[in-house]
C-alpha cells in the first residue's frame, strides 16, 4: 500500500507574486476540498473536474490557522442544515463560515491566535485552543459554555475523544486527556522530548497520535500507554491525521508524507516538493488525502497498491478504479475496471466484494460481476461469511446475499455505525455479533436472516469490557459459539443460543492478543503471550473442562517479531502481520479439520482410523470431546483410553450400564458438569431416588434432604448416607435440619436397600417396556 501524490505545476495560493503558505484544508465531499492560506483566500478544489475556484477573499486582518467542517452525519443520520465550518485565525477569533464563503458569525475567543478549532462528533459543541493557553467549549451557535483548561504555554493542537466526553490537548512536551465532567480525573504524561505540535484521536479504534519537534510521531492508547514510537525524522512532525476507519494514518513533515498502519509501522514514504505540511485531512471515504503545504501548494494523494489474498488468488488495487487479479497457481492475470473509485474491498469464501462510491460489485468469476446500488457510498467495513456479506456505512448495517439481495438490517438503540470496526463486529451464516459501543461489556446478537435480536432479545453481558469478538463459521445455528477477548486479555467462549438458560461463559485462554476462527472448521487460533496457540476443539470446555489443555497445539513465538497480529486462518494457513509490518505464514496440521468433518457427519469409524494413523494425543483428546458432545459413548471410551484417562473410561462404562435412557442422559450431563440439568432430567422422568442420589454423590446434603422432603420419599436414605459419611470422618451432626429429622426417622439399612432395589427394578421394567413399544412401532 502506498500514496500516489499529485501537485499542480503552479501553486494557487499566491499574494503579490509571493508564495503564501497554506495553513489548513478540509473536505466537504469525497471530491470537494476547501483550502485556506495566508493570502486571505478560501479556495474550492473540485477533483472530478480538476477546477479550482475562489470562494471568498477574507479581510486583510484574518490570517487562517485551522479549518474544520461541521460533521455530515450525526448518529447515522444526515444533517439537513446548511454546511458550515469553523475557521480559526491569528486575531484571536473564530469564524463560522458557510460553503459560499459568507461569515455567519465571528467570535472573540482568545488573546492571541486561535491555534485549533474542532467540532465534536455529534456537532453539538465546538472546542477552541489558543496561544493564551486556554481551551474553551462553545455551543453550535458560538456561545461560550465553559473554559475547560488554562495553562501557561500555547495549546497547539486539540482533539475530541470518541464519545465526545473527553478532550486531548498539548501542553508543551506533554499530552493531557481531560474529561468534560468537572469531578473526573485528568490523565497527563510526557509524550515527546520536544514541544508536541499535533495530535489526533480516532473514534473507531480509540487510539491517539502525536507528533512533535523531536521529529518523531508516536501512537498511544487512551490511557496514555505508548504503543509505538517512530525513529527520528529529519524535520519536526508538523501534521498527522487518522483515516476515518482507523486502519491507517498519515504523517506530514518538511517535504515528507508518510502512510502508516494503525499500529505505527510505515507502509510508504513519499517526498513531494511541498515545504512543511501544516495540515492533513482525509476524505470521508478514506481513499484520498490532502495536505496544506508551506510553499503555497495543496498536495493531493490517494491510496493505491492495496493487497488482498485468499487461497491461490492475490488482488491488487493498481489505480483508483482498476484492480488486478492474479492466480498464483497458473500465473493467469485478470484486470477489473470500475466506473467509480474503489473505496473498500474484501476477498473470502470464493467471493470478491468491492464497494465504490455508488455501487457494490460481487465477483464469483472474474468476467461477470453482480452489481447493486448502495444507499450510502461511504462503506467503512465489509465482513464476509460463507453465504452472506455485511456492509457497514455511516447510516447502518446491511446484510446481503452474494446474489445482491438485501437480507436484513439490524438496528439497536444508540447505534453508531460510524465507529464499528472488524474487532467489534462479527458475522456468520446465521448470526451477527456487535459489541455495544455505549457499554463495552455488552455484546448484541442478531439473527442474520431477520435482523432481529436472538432468543428473548437479551444481549450477552460479560463481566469486563470486551476488546474483540469472533463467531465460529461452521455447524448448525443451534451450536453457534462466540469467542471474545476482554480488556484483561482473557479469552472466553460461550454459546450464542442458550434457550432461556443463563449463558455459560468459559475461559479458555489468557494473555491473548489476537484471534481468528478457521473458515472451514470450528478451530480457533490466537497469539497467546509469546506463543502461537491453536485450540483444535475449543468446545471441549463445555463437555470436559480438563480435556481442553490436551486439545491445544502450541508453537513457540520466537520466529515472530514483537506483537504479531493474526489476519486470517484459511484452510491450514494462518497469515500474521508482524510488528514491523512484514507478513509471516504459519501452517497448521490438516488432521483436526478432517476430524471435525468426520464428527459432523457421524463417521466415527473414520475418525478412529484417522487418530490411529496420526498417533497424536491432541487428536485423541479432540475425538473424546466430540464423541461425548454427540453422546457416542463407545468412541469416547476408546479415545479416553488412548490418552490414559481411565477414571473417565470407568464412568463411561457406568453410564452405559444405566437401565434407562433418562439415567444415561443425566449422567452424561453430570460428566459435563451440568449438575442442575442432570437433576432436572431425572425429576422430569420421575426418577426421584436417582435425583437424590446425584446430590448424595456430590455431598450436597442440604439439596438431597430438600428433594427427599419435597417428594416425601427416601428421607431415611439421605439420613443413613449422611450418618455413614460423618462416621467415616469421626464427626458429629451439627446441621439443625438433619438433627430435627433424625429424631423421628428410623435408619434401617436393610429396608433402605430393599427400597432402592425396588426403584431400580421399576426403572428397568419401564425402560424394557419403552424398548418393546418402540420396536413394535418400527415394525409397523
UniProtKB/TrEMBL annotation:
Residues 619-765 form the IFT80/172/WDR35 TPR domain. Keywords: Cell projection, Cilium, WD repeat. GO terms for cellular component: centrosome; cilium; intraciliary transport particle B. WD repeats lie at residues 107-139, 189-221. InterPro entries: Beta-prop_IFT80_2nd (IPR056456), TPR_IFT80_172_dom (IPR056157), WD40/YVTN_repeat-like_dom_sf (IPR015943), WD40_repeat_dom_sf (IPR036322), WD40_rpt (IPR001680). Residues 305-591 form the IFT80 second beta-propeller domain. Pfam families: Beta-prop_IFT80_2nd (PF23335), TPR_IFT80_172 (PF23387), WD40 (PF00400). It is found in: Cell projection, Cilium. GO terms for biological process: cilium assembly. PANTHER family: INTRAFLAGELLAR TRANSPORT PROTEIN 80 HOMOLOG, OUTER SEGMENT 5. This is Intraflagellar transport 80 homolog (Chlamydomonas). It comes from Cyclopterus lumpus (Lumpsucker).
Amino acid at each position: 500500500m502506498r500514496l500516489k501524490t499529485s501537485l499542480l505545476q503552479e501553486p494557487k495560493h499566491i499574494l503579490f507574486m509571493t508564495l503564501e503558505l497554506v495553513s489548513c484544508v478540509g473536505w466537504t465531499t469525497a471530491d470537494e476540498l476547501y483550502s485556506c492560506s495566508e493570502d486571505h483566500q478560501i479556495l474550492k478544489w473540485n477533483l472530478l473536474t480538476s477546477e479550482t475556484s475562489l470562494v471568498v477573499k477574507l479581510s486583510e486582518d484574518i490570517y487562517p490557522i485551522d479549518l474544520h467542517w461541521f460533521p455530515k452525519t450525526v448518529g447515522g443520520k444526515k444533517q439537513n442544515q446548511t454546511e458550515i465550518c469553523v475557521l480559526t485565525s491569528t486575531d484571536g477569533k473564530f469564524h463560522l463560515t458557510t460553503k459560499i464563503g459568507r461569515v455567519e458569525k465571528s467570535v472573540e475567543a482568545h488573546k492571541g491566535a486561535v491555534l485549533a478549532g474542532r467540532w465534536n462528533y455529534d456537532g453539538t459543541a465546538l472546542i477552541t485552543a489558543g496561544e493564551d493557553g486556554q481551551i474553551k467549549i462553545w455551543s453550535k451557535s458560538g456561545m461560550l459554555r465553559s473554559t475547560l483548561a488554562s495553562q501557561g504555554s500555547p495549546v497547539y493542537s486539540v482533539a475530541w475523544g470518541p464519545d465526545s466526553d473527553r478532550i486531548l490537548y498539548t501542553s508543551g512536551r506533554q499530552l493531557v486527556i481531560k474529561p468534560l465532567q468537572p469531578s473526573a480525573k485528568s490523565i497527563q504524561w510526557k509524550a515527546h522530548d520536544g514541544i508536541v505540535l499535533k495530535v489526533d484521536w480516532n473514534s473507531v479504534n480509540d487510539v491517539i497520535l502525536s507528533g512533535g519537534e523531536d521529529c518523531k510521531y508516536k501512537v498511544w492508547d487512551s490511557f496514555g500507554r505508548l504503543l509505538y514510537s517512530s525513529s527520528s525524522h529529519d524535520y519536526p512532525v508538523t501534521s498527522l491525521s487518522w483515516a476515518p476507519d482507523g486502519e491507517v494514518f498519515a504523517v506530514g513533515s518538511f517535504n515528507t508524507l508518510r502512510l502508516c498502519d494503525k499500529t505505527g509501522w510505515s507502509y510508504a514514504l513519499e517526498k513531494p516538493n511541498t515545504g512543511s505540511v501544516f495540515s492533513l485531512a482525509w476524505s470521508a471515504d478514506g481513499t484520498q488525502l490532502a495536505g496544506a503545504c508551506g510553499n503555497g501548494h495543496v498536495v493531493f494523494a490517494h491510496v493505491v497498491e492495496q493487497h488482498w489474498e485468499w487461497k491461490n488468488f492475490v488482488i491488487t488495487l493498481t489505480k483508483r478504479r482498476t484492480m488486478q487479479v492474479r492466480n498464483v497457481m497458473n500465473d493467469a492475470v485478470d484486470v477489473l475496471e470500475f466506473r467509480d473509485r474503489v473505496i473498500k474491498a474484501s476477498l473470502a469464501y470464493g467471493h470478491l466484494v468491492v464497494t465504490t462510491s455508488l455501487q457494490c460489485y460481487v465477483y464469483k468469476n472474474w468476467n461477470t460481476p453482480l452489481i447493486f446500488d448502495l444507499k450510502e457510498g461511504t462503506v467503512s467495513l465489509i465482513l464476509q461469511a460463507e453465504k452472506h456479506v455485511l456492509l457497514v456505512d455511516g447510516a447502518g448495517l446491511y446484510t446481503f446475499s452474494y446474489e445482491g439481495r438485501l437480507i436484513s438490517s439490524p438496528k439497536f438503540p444508540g447505534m453508531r455505525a460510524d465507529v464499528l470496526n472488524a474487532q467489534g463486529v462479527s458475522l456468520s451464516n446465521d448470526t451477527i455479533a456487535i459489541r455495544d459501543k455505549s457499554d463495552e461489556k455488552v455484546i448484541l446478537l442478531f439473527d442474520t436472516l431477520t435482523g432481529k435480536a436472538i432468543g428473548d432479545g437479551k444481549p450477552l453481558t460479560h463481566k469486563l469490557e470486551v476488546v474483540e469478538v469472533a463467531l465460529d463459521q461452521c455447524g448448525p445455528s443451534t451450536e453457534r459459539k462466540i469467542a471474545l477477548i476482554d480488556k484483561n486479555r482473557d479469552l472466553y467462549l460461550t454459546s450464542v443460543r442458550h434457550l432461556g438458560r443463563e449463558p455459560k461463559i468459559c475461559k479458555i485462554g489468557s494473555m491473548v492478543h489476537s484471534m481468528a476462527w478457521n473458515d472451514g472448521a470450528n478451530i480457533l487460533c490466537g497469539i497467546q503471550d509469546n506463543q502461537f496457540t491453536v485450540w483444535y476443539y475449543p468446545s471441549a470446555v463445555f463437555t470436559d473442562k480438563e480435556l481442553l489443555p490436551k486439545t491445544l497445539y502450541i508453537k513457540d513465538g520466537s520466529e515472530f517479531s514483537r506483537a504479531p497480529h493474526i489476519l486470517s486462518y484459511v484452510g491450514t494457513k494462518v497469515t500474521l502481520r508482524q510488528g514491523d509490518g512484514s507478513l509471516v505464514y504459519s501452517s497448521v496440521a490438516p488432521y483436526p479439520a478432517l476430524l471435525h468433518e468426520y464428527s459432523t457427519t457421524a463417521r466415527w469409524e473414520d475418525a478412529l482410523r484417522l487418530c490411529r494413523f496420526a498417533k497424536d494425543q491432541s487428536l485423541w483428546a479432540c475425538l473424546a470431546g466430540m464423541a461425548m458432545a454427540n453422546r457416542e459413548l463407545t468412541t469416547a471410551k476408546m479415545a479416553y483410553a488412548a490418552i490414559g484417562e481411565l477414571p473417565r473410561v470407568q464412568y463411561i462404562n457406568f453410564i452405559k450400564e444405566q437401565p434407562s435412557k433418562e439415567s444415561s442422559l443425566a449422567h452424561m450431563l453430570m460428566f459435563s458438569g451440568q449438575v442442575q440439568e442432570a437433576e432436572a432430567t431425572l425429576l422430569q422422568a420421575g426418577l426421584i431416588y436417582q435425583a437424590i442420589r446425584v446430590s448424595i454423590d456430590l455431598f450436597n446434603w442440604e439439596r438431597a434432604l430438600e428433594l427427599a422432603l419435597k417428594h416425601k420419599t427416601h428421607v431415611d436414605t439421605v439420613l443413613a448416607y449422611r450418618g455413614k459419611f460423618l462416621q467415616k470422618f469421626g464427626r458429629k451432626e451439627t446441621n439443625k435440619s438433619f438433627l430435627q429429622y433424625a429424631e423421628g426417622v428410623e435408619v434401617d439399612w436393610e429396608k433402605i436397600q430393599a427400597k432402592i432395589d425396588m426403584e431400580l427394578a421399576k426403572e428397568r421394567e419401564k425402560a424394557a417396556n419403552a424398548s418393546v413399544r418402540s420396536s413394535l412401532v418400527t415394525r409397523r
